[in-house]
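Q: What residues go here?
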């Protein structure tokens, strides 16, 4: 029987380096937009600036973080990981440029939706996630990589949440369910992807640098935690208050504390590129526990939302963006002082934003701290990693 040769990871590409792999444009643009959106949001929140959007100010802010910056980073990750998962060639060049343009048009259409109309804004904005779902689905099916079909399903659910957000905001004047659907999908993505990469990267580093206790491999316990969490999040989306939701959310939080403890993160302090993944994931159980407290009217619901989004999503995206950018541009996998500064800034941003909800008397100062630290973290990524994302990798290496 003839033996097949491995599928090459890259075709002969001669165009701009920024379009040679999905992580390059989407990590860079996602980081810039994450910082820019917060810079715009502060004066909007204070009533000093009015946007030409059909959304109420809070909904514009939530939408652009949840369905703007995050899909860009998710796309960058998926378009870089899928070739490894399936053995197929990556999306690059003109098709990648089309996706970038569609994403940018989505940001323009949402911000200017009062002028172009809510329906046109929804169609333009939703087309990006529709294209991403189609592209990732095609690759998974073509590569018969059924294990990762659940990731495609979550991208489709994120698309549904985005459409629901637009419809709900138009009909009701403000979004609610569309917000919770998007948050639930993002949390599930962190559970699935984090559950794969965190123990893997931790094990690789510990075996090489710090022999001893290793992370527990993925087992039935992890499957049970993910399934239980998915059911809990569904209940939270439908009805976030009351004893049933509160009890389920508390149980999910405890299960994720146990899951995180099985990954030996306490042994990774010397390797910041690995440690930051554990820190980011720690905001997932924190979010569940805060959501449980909110269900019993102990804390405002936004404390949990910011634990999941500013903490879980914010820290995890920068953790993945920095590591993937270093590895795929041929640099040493080492957290420089600038990278560690980025990590510290985003952690401060998350903690300050959660504290602003829980300590209202200090909310003004804490919101300023959170916004400043967030902007420093994401603009810092753009400044320190942007040059390497825009130039070709050394000829002796391959992405």
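A:
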């Amino acid at each position: 029987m003839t033996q097949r040769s491995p599928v090459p990871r890259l075709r002969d590409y001669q165009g701009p380096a920024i379009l040679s792999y999905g992580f390059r444009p989407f990590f860079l643009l996602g980081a810039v937009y994450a910082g820019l959106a917060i810079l715009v949001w502060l004066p909007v929140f204070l009533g000093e600036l009015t946007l030409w959007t059909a959304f109420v100010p809070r909904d514009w802010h939530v939408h652009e973080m949840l369905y703007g910056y995050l899909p860009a980073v998710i796309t960058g990750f998926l378009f870089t990981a899928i070739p490894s998962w399936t053995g197929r060639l990556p999306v690059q060049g003109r098709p990648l440029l089309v996706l970038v343009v569609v994403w940018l048009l989505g940001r323009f259409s949402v911000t200017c939706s009062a002028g172009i109309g809510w329906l046109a804004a929804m169609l333009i904005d939703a087309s990006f996630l529709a294209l991403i779902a189609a592209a990732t689905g095609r690759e998974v099916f073509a590569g018969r990589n059924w294990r990762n079909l659940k990731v495609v399903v979550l991208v489709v659910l994120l698309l549904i949440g985005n459409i629901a957000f637009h419809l709900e905001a138009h009909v009701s004047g403000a979004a609610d369910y569309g917000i919770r659907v998007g948050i639930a999908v993002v949390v599930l993505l962190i559970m699935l992807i984090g559950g794969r990469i965190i123990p893997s990267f931790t094990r690789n580093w510990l075996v090489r640098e710090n022999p001893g206790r290793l992370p527990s491999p993925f087992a039935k316990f992890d499957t049970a935690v993910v399934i239980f969490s998915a059911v809990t999040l569904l209940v939270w989306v439908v009805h976030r208050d009351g004893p049933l939701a509160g009890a389920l959310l508390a149980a999910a939080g405890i299960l994720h504390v146990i899951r995180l403890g099985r990954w030996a993160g306490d042994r990774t302090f010397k390797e910041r590129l690995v440690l930051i993944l554990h820190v980011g994931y720690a905001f997932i159980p924190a979010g569940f526990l805060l959501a449980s407290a909110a269900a019993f009217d102990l804390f405002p619901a936004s404390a949990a939302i910011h634990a999941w989004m500013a903490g879980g999503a914010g820290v995890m995206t920068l953790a993945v963006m920095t590591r993937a950018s270093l590895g795929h541009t041929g640099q040493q996998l080492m957290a420089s002082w600038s990278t560690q500064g980025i990590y510290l800034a985003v952690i401060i941003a998350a903690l300050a934003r959660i504290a602003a909800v829980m300590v209202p008397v200090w909310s003004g100062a804490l919101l300023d701290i959170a916004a400043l630290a967030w902007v420093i973290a994401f603009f810092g990524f753009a400044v320190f990693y942007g040059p390497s994302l825009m130039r070709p990798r050394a000829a002796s290496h391959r992405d």
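A: Context that may help when evaluating the design: Confidence is low (pLDDT under 50) at residues 1-8, 395-399. DSSP finds 13 helices and no strands in the chain.
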